Amino acid sequence: MLTFIGLGLYDERSITVEGRGALRRADRAYAEFYTSELIGTDLETLESHHGIDIEVRDRAGVEQHPEEILEAAEREDVAFLTAGDTMISTTHVDLRLRAHDRGIETRVIHGVTAQTATSSLTGLQNYRFGKATTLPFPYAHGADGLPASVTETIDDNRADGLHTVVYLDIKVDNEAAVRRAESAGDDTAGGEAGQTYMTADVGASLLAEAYPGLVGVVVARAGSPDPVVEAATMTELADREFGDPLHLLVVPGECHLLEADALCELAGVDRDALDVV
Predict the structure, then answer these.
(1) Are residues 46 and 104 in the same domain?
(2) What strand order describes the sheet that includes 215-220?
(3) b/e per residue 239-268 (b: at least 16 CB within 10 A)
(4) Are the beta carbons of 147 and 141 closer than 8 angstroms?
(5) Could you tell me the CATH number of the domain that includes residue 225?
(6) What digits encode the pLDDT tens for the residues 33-91?
(7) Quick one: pLDDT band at residue 144, thresholds 50, 70, 90?
(8) pLDDT tens digits, residue range 91-106?
(9) Which helix (H) or strand (E) element contains residue 172?
(10) How far apart are CA 186 and CA 82, in angstroms?
(11) Using CA atoms, how far apart are residues 21 and 271, in angstroms rounded to an integer?
């Protein structure tokens, strides 16, 4: 049995009750934190809280060499963990299909995601979001300016009146990447060795190159006791600080009256800067 369990957004308590029960009953647990992390806890606390040892796998150990996970799931009740939901944004459907090919029973226990939390915290309606995109560190994509994947997503969504979630880059086990960034004169990479998070001010600064007057909404530490929601133009957001990670940005499209009211009240946006329909 292989059970995919979303851990939620912030700490060891963010998991659902159903997920907690399944994890505590598991014989073995694996996790990946290269797609996202639980900022409010650490591995030792997570293991202690749930009473199980957790083996953390890197990207290659999950996507290219999952044999150990699958072989264990043929014999035992195995839990596979990620922050958020295991099947949203960066999915692990490939691992699930590999399990099915071996005749292994699978189950998915969902967790709260950044996408749904963003809708809840900003007041923007979930059904009015278009395709999401990820803004990489400049050294990671190696091109001048914003990647086309970012600008085309924002432009296409805006043309359809839709909101855009812009996920901000996370680099894990990044010591070499930080050295490359420093040698290239890129000061947008920070954090301790092993983890680098793009902050919303850096993301807004990069987006301001193409969209200086466009309104952005910062969502910081969703799922924590002290989330931040703040809206202004990209140029203005680039000069502000938003505290500890994780951060993301939203580019609003056309806003219904209630959505505009929510952004004014909850995020402090200038109503005249919004496209209200």
Answers:
(1) yes
(2) 133-135, 164-168, 247-251, 215-220, 228-233
(3) eeebeebbbbbbbbbbbeeebbebbbebbe
(4) yes
(5) 3.30.950.10
(6) 988 889 999 999 999 999 999 999 999 999 999 999 999 999 999 999 999 999 986 67
(7) confident
(8) 799 999 999 999 999 9
(9) strand 170-172
(10) 30
(11) 45
Tokens 């009015």 identify what position? 128
Going by the DSSP 8-state scheme, the letter that residue 182 receives in this structure is H
Angle, helix 67-75 to helix 93-101, in steps of 10 degrees: 50
Q: Which of 109, 143, 163 is the last residue of a domain?
A: 109
Burial class (CB in 10 A: 0-12, 13-18, 19+), 202: buried
Q: Residue 98 and residue 65: Cα distance in Å, rounded? A: 11
Those residues whose C-beta lies under 8 Å from the C-beta of residue 38, and which sit 6 or more positions away, are 7, 8, 9, 10, 11, 12, 14, 46, 83
Residue where one domain finishes, among candidates 109, 140, 171:
109
- Measured between alpha carbons, how far is 209 from 232 in angstroms, rounded to an integer? 15
- pTM given for the model: 0.86
In sign, the C-alpha dihedral spanning 31, 34, 39, 45 is positive
DSSP assignment of 17-63 equals HHHHHHHHH-SEEEE--SS---TT--HHHHHHHHTS-EEE--HIIII
Residue 9: asked if its preceding bond is cis (omega within 30°), the reply is no
Domain that holds residue 183: 114-276
- Determine the Cα–Cα distance for residues 268 and 184; give it in Å rounded to an integer: 37
Residue 179: the pLDDT is 45
Closest C-alpha to 132, from 144, 143, 119: 119
58 and 185 co-located in one domain: no
- The phi, psi pair for 193, rounded to 5°, reads -55, 130
**Pairing of β 133-135 and β 195-197:** unpaired
